């Protein structure tokens, strides 16, 4: 992703716009075909003096201005006549915006491939652990038994929604920006729309109803869509890092040469991928807020807002792509310790089965009464260090209503999973449509 | 919108969930029909002791817990047997989340109505001013002539995209949350999905593939969709406020009793609606970033993240709704001073026509040479205080190429509008599909 | 804190400004003493029609305007002559800003009291657990032994810095704003500064060099200072919540009636205070960014930026105050399970002592060689399930260099605490100066 | 500033830490003096294989780990014995943090120099325009006359406060971080504090009471202090850009080769420095929120939060430094058109003097009555296109109370400036203490 948003790639996409503009102009009879060919032949990033360009950009605040100057000079060297038609009808911002759209297209291709890979990995993981028992935790405390499969299915289900969002965003953002200085295409007179149409076709981009340069919702939406995706990635990474804690030890990132070592503690095995993802999830929200703030642009070109986007959106792409790639890489190789998951279910001396008992008693004595009874027994278990099953077995009110066999059944986690397995199946079924 | 997110409305929606849950439970044979009826009859916000609830919520951090307690007591008063089945199979978070979804549905209805009204107003405005000349401005400087119509068409086009986004978001966010304590519906055993389906039908909500409580992308997307919309509203408000400046005086918010007055300056007429909208556009980005940050929720229920959403999302709805309503209200009544717009075109002694001249000369001597020539003439005009047309007329290189009539034509703004009018028509045409 | 920023308190502070202004005006001979008395006697929030005011504010966007109108009418009822001098020389924004400063003063008093209480609690806790052994954790993995005291000392040390910051911020923010419509005090002619001085004295506020209304760094600094403090509170809460996890169980929030219960799981004991604090730490950063964004205010009064602050700053105060109060309340009553802390040190079969062994060997064979050796032994221990001490004892290279007694000494956590206890003492000593 | 935060500078500062650590260790008898010398001689960034380092960092997520490895190898080449003592007693995070502190020190030096230069420029500007009349504007509308001097004095006053804040922040952030793996300095046993003290002295940094690695308030404060400063810079840039608008044309950024040109409009003169500053003011708030969010770090080293700071803080420094430098550069060369400022005061046909008239009448008929009277006359003036002075002269109620001479006096802006000039003097006086 770094490459998609490198300076070179940016310039190449801008030159691609200039080449396509020349060809479109020629097709519409606005510039001579020979000029178009002469121009297109110089639209190569290798011909650009990148250093001179960077210096000039710092003064003009707009890379398109010195780029067009360099391109014009390059063309003029060989064909002074053709040089007159470089950038014909466009404004610098058309180059910047459409160049950005082309970068976004390439970036979305990469992101969607990793997203598909991640979903494949999660799908497999959910199937493998469809019935793997583990403690469900709420507010960082054991709550009820669940399965690792249902947890992974939740991750996958969210990722499937992100795939939908990417598709929808793509349709709105992958369009041409071409309006001339103030969006009227005045320099092309009555041929403006014709050239615009040809240009969009050249670049395989949609043709918008009206130039959109100061309507930044298209690019800002790219930022919010990525922001939402990174949020979910952060949630998955948080879960993994919690399960990987020394005392919990249920799920581990794959180990690897140099991965997660420490300069002083040779035994350390750190969740480095989770760290990368969580770092991205910490950074992206502030960057998205910048993109939204920058939408308030003045008139036909804003002052400073557009520049605020300039480094922010690529940063969001880089962070999201990095996080997504890490997750797609580790998910197929996560080490899951199902035995430890099961052992951890015992950490509360049976308290994790409190709800199961409450429901069983509740159907006989009412939920509120059952809740009170089990709450008391739980307190006693905690204070005395006894197992909840033992405390309950000694309680007369319970003994009258539940046999020892019934109690055994209630304290077996596999008997209190509700529809966990069906939920996993539902998500896996639904994933099929994403291929 | 304040009402949709009032405490009372929130509780009413939560009680709606409890009533529907009871009916669904009865329909699936999980609780007795009589109990369902008894419960549903008490699901009225007027019966709740709001003060006691607020106190208890501050301790439990979860309004659903004391609400269910109060409801149980209310039912028990009349029918102790039915009271046993209150909240059967649900967890507090199911009530909170589905209650929130119901609020969001109501809020989206209001927003979409105002959005439609705003688009109607913009449509009319664009048509009226399809050919109204004004200065196009870039970086807060005059650039080229444009029309007010094309500016408004740009606003409208963005708003049409927001309507699309609202529709897409609606489909993902308006779904049931029902999972029990850890998302397995364990308390309902094998009947979980059946009850879930019935409950979704009762509430006219979609049934998700898997409970989604800690997958917050659905609600976070509501926030980002609103954030994008508020960004565009801010852009429109910024434009209006710039045009309303004392020295520019082209567009005015409608005047009204008490609107925009000053305690000390009786002559002031302030852009108060623009202020409200810009205030929202300043606040929403930070709030959206909070929603994205809060997506990183632990395991089956997060610690603090969910609480961070609790007041943030309603605030985003309130601000967006307020901004949207202001804009929908003023747009049909904007005062547009077309004469002043035209007069302001003269503010630069003809410099605004520099590009037109450059293009005309460029087709004869090449764009770069023309640019240099006109740049020099512009400098001379600025320094001497003469009109650019006059400076050019006295330039030999120009006189050889452009006749006086041609110069006249170049300095008439209506001759340098490109496809402005067609662009307005395109957007108006496209708006038809939104009705 | 809710009360400091209630509508009533806000109005009361604004009226306090009006009363002081009248008195100052009289003192400087600008208005008649009798008028001052008549005005001051009506500056009581109980006399205000709050509902009418709210309605009018929604239109004027500025509560000071209708408030001054109501006050004038109230005074006029009794003394029409005096009514002429209400708000003499001020602009509505002077009332809003100085009223806000008075609220901030009251809010800082409350915050600083809770901050002192929290520091007291942390001080005590650090002393009690100066030598309580526990696992130091990095990247959520066991690293080396440490003491709970040194961890708490780190919390306390940060809190002491926040006390310094509050003091510094106080000096800059607690100043009068009084400038008239554009900051020149024109309405008071040559008496402007004299009245300003008298007014500052009346309100016990500093007199700034120049009115500062659109220079928002003073109020924005209040936001950043609170933001920094909330960040540290969030760090403490995160630590507590991690230690309170079911499998770790080292530190617990105090239990209490209704605290941390669950509607379905009677055994749950949730870290509710940590949840409140973490929620605040999730929300405040976005709100601070809004305050910083809102600093870019136009000319002598901004459009919308100031309104963006209006609800944001109080929200930051409320959240910080809530978080601080929770923390100050629970810290003196935290339940610390020192035995469990010690037991958890064993969770890694001795790997936590790897660095100690590395350092001991390193002084003989060099750090790099020792690191490699111990890394290998750690891997073997992990894979074989043996204790690291045992693996090392069987290693020839180790046996040649470390006796069994030396190994015993290396595997006793109390022997590898470095200067932990001195660090605790240093922080406690340094805390003395804060009283 | 780019150079201070370049990869090379970062590494050099980290190596400076390693060299100082070796010297401090030798001074305290912890490592042999010869080893210290051998190590220090290799602590040069030119000796580092930057490419290998970058690759290794991507895996370990921590540049200090591969850097120490490389340094050890470099030392070992010449002196295998000395190589054993590289990084003795430190952890990778000590290197990262203290290296960062050294960068911050250098960055603050640069920022403070530019801040001093800017204040010098503003001081001069305020003096020059102490009495230059211009329209004061509120809510982007003319309000009352003011002077350009008083506006600049407001900018300067805020900048002086930022200088104070920099000084205070410096004291808290420029301290050593040195704690070993979990902050106990265990690897140095009882010598930990002695080495820490020597190390702080070597680096001319303060010695904190306790290692602070996961207490990020120190570095986050650097971010908030810069954020506040950038907010003020944004306010100044906004003002300049508003005054530079085509129709207002009061203040101009200095023109320069390549500055503010356009690729298509040869006449454009854009506020490019304002654009850079406003871009920074749009970006920094979101980045500051990231720094605050990242404060919630787990235990003795956080997971991902610290990494989130890694690029964010340098970005804040770069943006603030860029904005500050732009402003310091243009302020001494701003072109101020005092004649145009005066002419613009006439833009409202005298309405800008409405308050002056109101106050004059108010002292005779009461403020409310005067307000109503002048409000009516203002409306009439606006509607009829007449000058307010003329409308008032024709009003009987006015004619009875104000003579023609008095009216003339009221409509002269220099007579309604209040204490504007004294305010300028106060700020200039106060600036003296900053030198």
Query: In terms of structural class, how would the helical and strand content of chain A be classed?
Result: mainly alpha
Q: What's the number of extended β-strand segments of chain A? A: 4
Q: Could you tell me how far the N terminus lies from the C terminus of chain A, measured between alpha carbons in angstroms?
A: 24 Å
Q: What is the makeup of the main sheet of chain A? A: 2 strands, antiparallel
- Molecular shape of chain A: elongated
> Measured on Cα atoms, how large is the radius of gyration of chain A?
30 Å
CATH architecture label of the largest domain in chain A: Up-down Bundle
SSE string of chain A, helix = H, strand = E?
A: HHHHHHEEHHHEHHEHHHHHHH
Helix content of chain A: 55-70%
Q: Oligomeric state of the chains? A: homotetramer
Biggest chain pair contact, residues each?
Answer: A-B, 111 and 110 residues
Which residue ranges of chain A are poorly predicted, with pLDDT under 50 across at least 5 consecutive positions? none
What name does the CATH topology of the largest domain in chain A carry? Fumarase C, Chain A, domain 2
Output the strand order for the largest sheet of chain A.
Answer: 1-2
Number of helices of chain A: 18
Q: Name the CATH superfamily classification of the largest domain in chain A.
A: Fumarase/aspartase (Central domain)
Beta-strand portion of chain A reads under 5%
Tags for this entry?
Ribonucleotide Reductase Protein R1, domain 1, 4% strand, 18 helices, homotetramer, two-stranded antiparallel ribbon, Fumarase C, Chain B, domain 1, mainly alpha, 435 residues, Fumarase C, Chain A, domain 2
